[in-house]
Amino acid sequence: MLSAECSDASSHTSSMMVDSTLTQVGKNLNEAMRILGDGQGELESGTRRQHFGSTGIPGPLQGDGQDVSTLLHLVHNLINDEDEDGEKPTLHRLQNVGEQGHMALLGHSLAAYISVLDRERLRKLTTRILSDTTMWLCRLFRYENGSACFHDDDRDGLVKVCRLVINARYQEYASEGYAVLSSKQPIIYQSAACRPGLAQHLCTQLGLPLSSLCTVPCNTVFGSQHQMDVALLEKLIKEDKEAGKLPLLLIANAGTPGAGHTDKLGRLRDLCDQYSLWLHVEGVNLATLALGEVTSAIMAATRSDSMTLTPGQWLGLPAVTAVTLYRHEDPALSLAAGLTPSQPVEKLRALPLWLSLQYLGHSGVVQKFRHATSLSQQLLQKLKSVTSIKTSVEDELKSPVVLFKFSQEMSAASHEGSVEGFCAGEKEVLDAFNRWLGEQLAQLVPTSGVDVVELEEEGTCVRFSPLVTAAVLGTQQEDVEDLVVKLMEVVPVMNSTLCLIQDFREQTHRHSPSLRYIEEHSWPGLGAVRYEPQADGMDEIRRKQELEKINTELLKKLQELDTDIIFSSGSEFGTEDDCIFVGMVTEDVDVCELVDTIAALGRDIVESGRLLENMTEVVRKGILEAELQLQKANEEKLIEEGMLRQLPLVGSVLNWFSPVQSSIKGRTFNLAAGSLDSTEVTYSTKAQAGKQSLQDAPTSSSKRLPGQRLFQRSGPGSDSISETSSIGQADDTAMERSVPERSSVQPPISPTALETPSDTASDVTTEKIQGSCEQVPSQVEAEEATKERQPEGQEVKQSSR
Fold it and tell me: CA within 20 to 30 Å of 538's CA: 291, 331, 367, 598, which one?
């Protein structure tokens, strides 16, 4: 009796210890989530706390320990740390961790705690967790009499299934090993639409040669182009059997990774029964097995020998393992293949999912899957009303994956302009446009979860797969509405850009050879150009350096313009160097003005560069010429005024009694022309030379309406200048259009351009260059400054030297 009381007391004490430990685990998890959540809020609000461990260089372990709060702040700072360039930390989107996500995180913490229990209690608890989770999943996904294998890598389940099939088909494999495979080489079949690298991973893990992998093409005539060709598969199986090989396993898709299509699982099941193949199914569409109404194509997956599920991704559960459900009668072979865990601790992988499934319940799981499929149907219905957008789905009524793309044919049918012949590589251009479209939508509506996929037949498409992303990102119907709104804003810009590409090419060829059009089909925009000045007598290295310098400066000036057009170097898009890439444009953009401005700015950069290179020689020759003219002027002055007027005191008295009208005129040093000019014209007209031409020449800013951006047509009734004016007229007005509204964009002008009245920025540039050379030491500056201050028609007093 005393022994029983002691046992009860010990049990009660142990229970109290367990309760307190579990409570502490929950408190620590809540504290960790709070600190990490507060840190995320700080980044959103722009505030920051103390920065722990900001350096990225590993250091020694500190002698004194740190508390939990400090360590959690350290983890937070490592997640949202400054980059190597010292820029401010950016806000990284975290997974939408709901209450069920907290249960999954709690499961990971409890798994670590449960692993320290005594062996017998651990065995009972893990067996219960594993059996419960297996039963719930089999019932939820209609997979009767199945077993479950939990694994972190979603490919490991298939690897273990292959080991099981090899052990079952090769009786002596357990004792002889790989030697028995030489008699009959095993063959694994997969669809061409399977996820890349899956079969190669199998061969690597199993030690099989790549010749054991057979890729079956998809349909080319009948059926979906993303479904496996069943007739061709049967032909390949027969050929392999006749060649003495052993058809081992077939990998089928219930939702291909790219388009979300499902193979003909019913026919594949019959074919596998006929030739004794193991049928393994995977794909996102397997989640719809939990719904009340399931299509016959998906229902056929319940007859497969094994299937891989990713419930953590579908339900938004962080760090939850993938699950492979399988049917096999020999538990020894399952244990040998690794499908059945041999250690109780390995069974704890199911604990996070066990807790989350109980928290959600059967109805909660089904509701999440139904919500994801309803989002797909909502987007599909909305896209039908969007022009220039082409959709691609497997089933109009129940497809959980929606593909859409910007279509050239639909754009031509809905847009007034024509896109025929706009580019030699039409498919590449459309792929680039759709890639840009997907990136823009993902940036504008990040909670939508759209991404870009590359398909063999359709090309580049935008994919919306809410079964994979909705639970993680918390996608709602409002996000789908917002996605459609943003799409309708972006599509007109893509239409107008597509229609103006040919015009942009023709306008660029008009400025050849100085302005060259670059064929770069991977750029999502109007096109790419490069300014190439004449390089006579210049070696290749020097020519490349000049090209880089000129186009870099030209890009900088274009980016400073007051316009909505984006100019980029586009280094990540093409192989051509030193190019300027012009982005998307609206339909009211004047392409002729745009190209003329690019050419004019490039020409001015080249001419100003040449001017700066020759400035040293120009200044030297100008000083020598000025000294000769000053010497000649002094001699004439001496002859004209006489010797007495040169004496300091006598000259002043004579000049007071009898003033002399000097005939010597002032000089101005024109750096742009490289010559000395008389100041007589300047003082007679009271203005700088060329001032009248600057006032008379109209600029584009004077013609621009209030609020009108650069390169924008004045109204809807005005046509493009390229359509109404000849090439000669466009050339005459090129520099007129190139004068922007901002002073920072006014380019320097060349000496030769001073003779042209349309070059309106010549005097401004010349004055700037002259101002930069005010420190040139010579006697010219003092002499000429004295003479320039002399008003015309008045007497001047001069002191003798």
Answer: 598
How many whole angstroms separate alpha carbon 6 and alpha carbon 3?
A: 5
Q: Indicate whether 199 belongs to any domain.
A: yes
Q: What six digits make up the tokens of 384?
A: 């039908």
Q: In what order do the strands lie in the sheet with 567-568?
A: 515-518, 527-531, 580-582, 567-568
Residue 338 sits in the same domain as residue 253: yes
Shared domain for 480 and 392, answered yes or no, is yes
Nearest to 314 by CA among 156, 472, 450: 472
pLDDT band at 159 (very low <50, low <70, confident <90, very high): very high
Residues 165, 197, single domain; the answer is yes
Going 449 to 455 to 458 to 460, the CA torsion angle's sign is positive
In a domain, 75, yes or no: no
Nearest to 256 by CA among 288, 283, 287: 283
Dump pLDDT digits (tens) for 55-97.
Answer: 556 778 877 887 777 877 787 777 766 544 445 444 444 556 6
For residues 126 and 120, what is the distance between their CA atoms, to the nearest angstrom?
Answer: 10
Q: What is the domain-level CATH number for residue 378?
A: 3.90.1150.170
> Is residue 502 domain-shared with residue 564, that is, in the same domain?
yes
pLDDT of residue 59: 73
pLDDT tens readout for residues 637-696: 777 666 666 667 766 776 776 776 666 666 776 665 666 677 766 666 654 444 444 334
Residue ending a domain, among 607, 622, 640, is 607
pLDDT at 369: 95
| Distance separating alpha carbons of residues 730 and 528, to the nearest angstrom | 21
As a whole number of angstroms, the distance between CA 107 and CA 782 comes to 89
**Which one of 607, 638, 668 terminates a domain?**
607
Given a cut of 90, whether residue 697 has pLDDT beyond it is no
Q: What is the CATH number of the domain that holds 249?
A: 3.40.640.10
Q: Backbone dihedral region of 793: left (phi > 0), alpha (psi from -120 to 50 degrees) or beta?
A: left
Dihedrals phi, psi of 539, to nearest 5 degrees? -70, 175
Task: Give a yes or no: residue 304 inside a domain.
Answer: yes
Listed in sequence order, the residues at least 6 apart from 561 whose beta carbon sits closer than 8 Å to its beta carbon are: 597, 710, 740, 742, 745
Residue 220 confidence (pLDDT): 72
Residue 326's DSSP bridge partners are 147, 306
pLDDT tens digits, one per residue of 707-744? 666 777 765 444 433 333 333 333 444 334 343 343 33
| 226 contacts 396 by C-beta, under 8 angstroms | no
Q: Which residue range(s) make up the domain with 471?
A: 368-409+425-494
d(CA 583, CA 526): 6
Does residue 730 contact residue 722 with C-beta atoms inside 8 Å?
yes
Is 766 a residue whose pLDDT tops 90? no
| Average pLDDT for 350-360 | 93
Whole-number pLDDT of residue 244: 94
CA pair distance 71, 82, nearest whole angstrom: 18
The residue-averaged pLDDT of 226-252 equals 95
Residue 253 shares a structural domain with residue 287: yes
Number of domains in the chain: 3
Name the helix (H) or strand (E) containing 282. Answer: strand 278-282
Residue 530 placed within a domain: yes
Percentage of residues of the chain with pLDDT beyond 90: 42
User: pLDDT value at position 668?
Assistant: 73
**Sheet bearing 402-406, strands edge to edge:** 389-392, 402-406, 459-464, 451-455
Q: Are residues 300 and 155 in the same domain?
A: yes
* Prediction pTM value: 0.73
Task: Please determine, for residue 130, whether its predicted confidence score (pLDDT) is greater than 60.
Answer: yes
Looking at the fold, whether 339 and 382 belong to one and the same domain comes out as: no
CATH number (domain holding residue 506) = 3.90.1150
Q: So what's the pLDDT on residue 28?
A: 67
Mean pLDDT of the chain: 77
For 523-576, where are the alpha helices, taking DSSP H only?
540-559
On whether both 204 and 257 belong to a single domain, the answer is yes
